[in-house]
Amino acid sequence: KGREQILEVHIRNKKLAEGITLTDIAKRTAGFSGADLENLMNESAILAARRNKSAVTMDEINDATDRVIAGLEGRPLNNNASKKLVAYHEAGHAIVGSLLPHHDPVNKVTVIPRGQAKGLTWFTPGEDQSLISTAMLKARIAGALGGRVAEQLVFGSSQVTTGAGGDLQQVERMARAMVTQFGMSDDVGSIAIDDGGFGGPNYSEDLNSKIDSAIKNISDECFQTAWNLLETHRDCLDRVAEELCEMETITGDRLREIIAQYTEVPEKMAVV
């Protein structure tokens, strides 16, 4: 509702195509700040003008949303080997995220480069990001590892790439927060030993060792979760990667249609 009200301010001098509601846009932009929403509507209007359209359509809004989130769109990959590898990487993220009930739903998957990324999988986060369960965090870690797992499963350990670098940093941040800020580790205990500030506290050598071990245990557990899912549904992974290579972008709905041909797509669970 808050985003709808902000969007109403920023569309006063812009014409939306028939059938588009502010509710639709608000649902697509979970997590956007007021400045992000202003940029979104301005960018949408610019794209509509460039495309000689008399009104802003959902195509412009979706493209502008992607640009606000991830940066400028690059040129499609021409190298078939690179494109295939990126397709498997993104398919890994998307399938793991779709098959874990506590993971955010997939919004879109693409192998078209944007910003620094060679491909991207977008997820739609729930409204309340202030209350996140252990199951949700572990699902997000497994989803983040899905790209590396797919590379390793399909191409072998010697062919994994640097493409998972950002994913692995994200995994470390989430796992470390679980251990040191949220007391979500049996190894360390239900205590908060880090407030998330810069620099961090000075840990004893024994506690530091326990923290490192706990972080690794969480990462290893989630890696195995992702591996089991993709190994079990390897035929589905191949199919999604194949369609990504051909179409370059597929929607979350289309992804779920494909997965449903191979296995049941679970309902997404609430925080509890």
UniProtKB/TrEMBL annotation:
<feature type="domain" description="Peptidase M41">
    <location>
        <begin position="79"/>
        <end position="258"/>
    </location>
</feature>
<protein>
    <recommendedName>
        <fullName>Cell division protein FtsH</fullName>
    </recommendedName>
</protein>
<dbReference type="Pfam" id="PF17862">
    <property type="entry name" value="AAA_lid_3"/>
</dbReference>
<keyword id="KW-0472">Membrane</keyword>
<dbReference type="InterPro" id="IPR041569">
    <property type="entry name" value="AAA_lid_3"/>
</dbReference>
<dbReference type="InterPro" id="IPR027417">
    <property type="entry name" value="P-loop_NTPase"/>
</dbReference>
<dbReference type="Pfam" id="PF01434">
    <property type="entry name" value="Peptidase_M41"/>
</dbReference>
<comment type="similarity">
    <text>In the N-terminal section; belongs to the AAA ATPase family.</text>
</comment>
<feature type="domain" description="AAA ATPase AAA+ lid">
    <location>
        <begin position="21"/>
        <end position="62"/>
    </location>
</feature>
<dbReference type="InterPro" id="IPR000642">
    <property type="entry name" value="Peptidase_M41"/>
</dbReference>
<dbReference type="InterPro" id="IPR037219">
    <property type="entry name" value="Peptidase_M41-like"/>
</dbReference>
